[in-house]
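Worked example 4.2. Below are the chains of a multi-component assembly; read each line carefully before continuing.
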Amino acid sequence: MVASFWKAQKPIWTPTGNSEYEKLLRADYLWRVALEQQKNFGLTESAFAELKGQLSEGSEKLFEHIFLAHFKDCQQYVMQQDNAPEEVAYDATMDAFITFRQRLVDDKVKYGNLRFLLTRMARQHYYKRAKKESTVALDLILDPSVGPDVTFEPSLYDLLDRGWNTLTQDCRELLRAFYYQGKALREIGEALSKKPATMRKQKQRCTDQLRVACGAQPQVQRK
Amino acid sequence: MTTINKFTDSNLTEEEQDAIIGSFVRQREDTKLKNRWAEKLAKEHNIRRKETSRNNPAKIRKLYFLLLSAAAVLLFLLVFLPGLMMADGKELLATNLSEITLSGSRGATATDGPVSDEALRIQFRDNFQAGDFTTATELGEQLIALPATTDNDRLNLGFAYLRASQFPEAEETFRTLLSTNSDFASEARYYLGISLLAAGDTKAGLDELRKITAADGSQLLESAKAYLDADWK
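Applying the procedure described above to all two chains together yields the following structure tokens:
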């Protein structure tokens, strides 16, 4: 898969003439391609589209292959720019990679200057961790369309985790696709050749199972 | 209402349920992903998270308390103890003046002089030892006027002046001894300093005592140092 990805990196068109003008044109073109790719972790626009496609299908390999190689640079950038302690810069970079990956899955990142975007995200995560968010805008790492995550006590997390482990594999995949990958029930149903109504009922059964496993009553159905 | 109560409440709305389960699933999956990346970063890129020091805050507080206590004690010792240990110069002087005794014979003696000289010496000594320093000074003045007088007589007269609180006379006597290159030059220097101190000229007195060196004898040197180290404020 990775080998096929690199084949896709070849430029679509390269000037081939031998006149001085065409040589200059070719050099200029190659320079622009190199500069663009440098800003985008060596990715061409088509390769970037392929990466997003793989992520949305649930494959992490390409993302990890490309981006983890730049982890150290990003961490050091945060350390240098914000005088961040090494371990906090590591955590902030890890958070940025998670956010960046999620934005790719949600198709909210445009090809252009991915390196700049990722490093800014890392710095914003550092500000958040260092509780400096009141002085700096965290526009890149907060997603108003999703809303803030619920802050729940560790005991509820443990309870939900125990309940999660009692769910069937089908339920876990359905809930993961719906809540984590952000897929609509219709989309999930299409992949499984099931109707949206069936998927809605299945999701309800799965969440009820989770609630019961956590010691709660099933949700009261509202019309 | 805590989130756990909210989640187990059967009247939970679908939106609330989605918010809680969604947060849980995202947190769980992100944690899984982070763990996997951390493993890959360590294995394939040799990048590891630096461990945060796990110092126990309570232990640190205790340590700080101990360090602060030690620092406070040290500060107290540095600031106040030298003052407490430092002798009061005037008290030291008063004590030493009251303990001045006559010097024994050294150098040229008057044993071969007329009997009257020796009789005068005996009277001087008797009066001094009896505490009649005024009479002793009068006898001493007569004694140093005699041709057979010695430097020891002059030194003892200086002591008598000191005991009689006649400090300018004591000062003059010790200066005379110093100027004659006497065998008692060290004692004369030391007691000249004492005379000046007793007369209230602290600076001049200490300056004289500062001139006492090891060559003047360890006893005089230590006594001089005691005055030099004393508090004269």
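Take a moment to check your reading of the output against the notes. The CA atoms of residues 105 and 181 of chain A lie 7 Å apart. Chain A touches chain B at residues 60, 64, 68-69, 71-72, 75, 86-87, 90-91, 94, 97-98, 101, 147, 149-153, 155-157, 159-161, 164, 175-176, 179-180, 207, 210-211, 214-220, 222 (CB under 8 Å).
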